[in-house]
Amino acid sequence: MYRVIPDLSGANLSETNLSRADLSNANLKGTDLSGADLTGTYLSGADLKGTDLSGANLIGTYLTGAKLSRANLNGANLSGAKLITTDLREAKLREANLSGANLTQIQALSSDFQSANLTDACILDWNINNATNFTDVCCDSIYFGWDGRSRGFDDRRPHDPNQTFEPGDFARLIEQSQETVDLIFSQGIDWNAFLTSFQNLQVSGNHGELTIQGINKKSDGSFVISVETPLGIDKAAVERDFWDRYQPILESKDRQIASLMEIVETMVEKQAEIVKVMAENQGNHNGDIINMNASSHDQSKQVNIAKVKGSTVNVSNKAATEFGHPTHHETEP
Questions:
Q1: Roughly how many angstroms between the first and final C-alpha of the chain, as a whole number?
Q2: Which terminus of the chain has a smaller tally of CB atoms within 10 A, N or C?
Q3: Cα–Cα dist 222/56, whole Å
Q4: What is the value of pTM for the model shown?
Q5: Cα dihedral 162, 167, 168, 174 sign
Q6: Which of 187, 183, 101, 182 is nearest to 139 (CA)?
Q7: 200: Cα within 13 Å, side-chain hemisphere
Q8: Helix or strand or coil: residue 224?
């Protein structure tokens, strides 16, 4: 059964109760949803460009991948909302409640967060610029990490769970994050591959001047390398371009190592075979009969010439007689 995707573009749904409705991928462009109840509503992938959501209740709403550029979210309650990869470029979010919201990888270029509440929100890899407005933002703490499996946030600032930001701390933190991209190497780092990839990224010139601001090794063996970028640069693109260069180098090295291991294993197997053959040959020289085809006086007999014992050859009486040699004569091999 096919699901019909709603087209409610331009509709007046002000104050409407749409709580927990499934409006995923719906066309809501330019719709009036001011004051609407959208608690827990599924709006993932929905087109909400230019939509009026001022004063709307969006607690726990699913907005992953939604298009909210230039939307009016002034005074909206987005507490605990899921806005992962959501497009919020030039959106109005004045006095909006975003406490505990998941803002991972959102696009917030030139967005207006003036007087918004961002306490305990997760801002992992969000994309902002110097035109993003954070004037008078309320924020006691913020998270820079998110575990997609457990759905929990981590990497809190301040690190001490009993502490909160002093006045101005959040603004200073945001100012720094505007200028850096954090490259996280959770499985350790190949320094040769990193240097090659980073140099190629610099030479490309696609992202302006890039410099390494800091290298931090974590207790679990992972590394975080902070790269300073020009203001206004698409940091997601910088990160993506780096990994697109780094991963193929690692994969190439893995293939080379695998090939080398196969060669080594083959050599070991061959060596084992050689040792086995040598051992068997050594055993054959301890009392085994060596047969030779030789012509006797009647030119028809096959005779046993000798037994090999150690390093001497004992010629048998029969062989000695038939070849005209004295019996019990010993010769060196």
A1: 91
A2: N
A3: 42
A4: 0.59
A5: positive
A6: 101
A7: 13
A8: strand
